[in-house]
Amino acid sequence: MLGLRQPDLAVCLEKVHKPHNLAAMMRNCDATGVHHLHAIWATKHQIRRGTAVGSQNWLKLHSHKTSADAIGQFKAQGMQLLVTHLSDKAVDFRQVDYTRPTAILFGQERTGASEEAIAAADQEIIIPMLGMVQSLNVSVAGSLILYEAQRQRQQAGLFATPRLDEAECQRILFEGGYPKLAYLCRIKGLDYPHIDDEGQIQADADWWQIMQQDGRVALQEAPQILSGWQRKMLGN
C-alpha cells in the first residue's frame, strides 16, 4: 500500500464542515493512493471513524487556519492548483493532466470555493451535470475526480515505483501498527524504532526498558487496545 502512495497528488477541503464528508474524503484518498489531505477550518472537527473505515491511520492530515496558508504551501511545492467551481472558465475534470504535481481543492458544501481559492487556481474544473442539480455531494465529486487522476497516473506508470520516502513509511507503519507504543514514544520523547519487513519492531533492550517505566499509567490514557504480546512486552 505504501509503495503505491502518490505524494505529489493532494486533496484540500476548504471549510468543509460536515464530519462525514471529511471522513468519506479520507476514504477516497486512501483508495486512490493520495497521501496528503489538507483541511482548512477555523475549528477542527471530529473524524467519523466509521465512515473513514480506518483511513485516517494511513494518511497524512494537514490542518490550515486560512486558505492562503494551504495555497501558499501548494505553490511552494510547484503543484498546479485545481479548484472545483462552476464558471465559464471551468473545464471538464477529465481534460486535466493529473500526472503533474497536483492539488485539488473542494469548497464548502453550500457556498463552494472561496474567491481567494478561485483567484489562485491554475484551472477551475467541473463535473458535467445533465439534470437539474448543479453539483454532487463533495465526497462523491471527490471520488470521481480522484479515480480519473488514478487512471491517468496508472497509464503513465507512476504507480510502478515506490515514491513515498522511507522515513514517512516507517512513521506510518509504527503509528498505524502500534498506536499505543507510538503514544508512549511521544510522551516519553523517544524516537520511533525501525519496523522490519515482517511488521515487527526492531529495538534494543534499553528502548524497551524505557517504554516499561510508568507504562501502565500512561497507557490508561491511550485510546487503542494493545495485543497480548505487546502488553507482555510492557509488563502490563
UniProtKB/TrEMBL annotation:
Keyword Glycoprotein recorded: no
Positions of S-adenosyl-L-methionine binding: 84, 127, 136
InterPro entries: Alpha/beta_knot_MTases (IPR029028), rRNA_MeTrfase_SpoU_C (IPR022724), SpoU_MeTrfase (IPR001537), TrmH (IPR033671), tRNA_m1G_MTases_N (IPR029026)
Domain tRNA/rRNA methyltransferase SpoU type: 9-147
Residue ranges of every copy of the RNA methyltransferase SpoU/TrmH type C-terminal domain listed in the record: 151-204
Keywords from the UniProt entry: Methyltransferase, RNA-binding, S-adenosyl-L-methionine, Transferase, tRNA processing, tRNA-binding
Reaction catalyzed: guanosine(18) in tRNA + S-adenosyl-L-methionine = 2'-O-methylguanosine(18) in tRNA + S-adenosyl-L-homocysteine + H(+)
Top-level division of the source organism's lineage: Bacteria
EC number: 2.1.1.34
Keyword match Metal-binding: no
Class in the EC hierarchy, top level: transferase
Pfam families assigned: SpoU_methylas_C (PF12105), SpoU_methylase (PF00588)
Similarity section: Belongs to the class IV-like SAM-binding methyltransferase superfamily. RNA methyltransferase TrmH family.
Cited function: Catalyzes the 2'-O methylation of guanosine at position 18 in tRNA.
NCBIfam families registered for this protein in UniProt: PRK11081.1
Protein name: tRNA (guanosine(18)-2'-O)-methyltransferase
Organism name: Bowmanella denitrificans
Gene it is expressed from: trmH
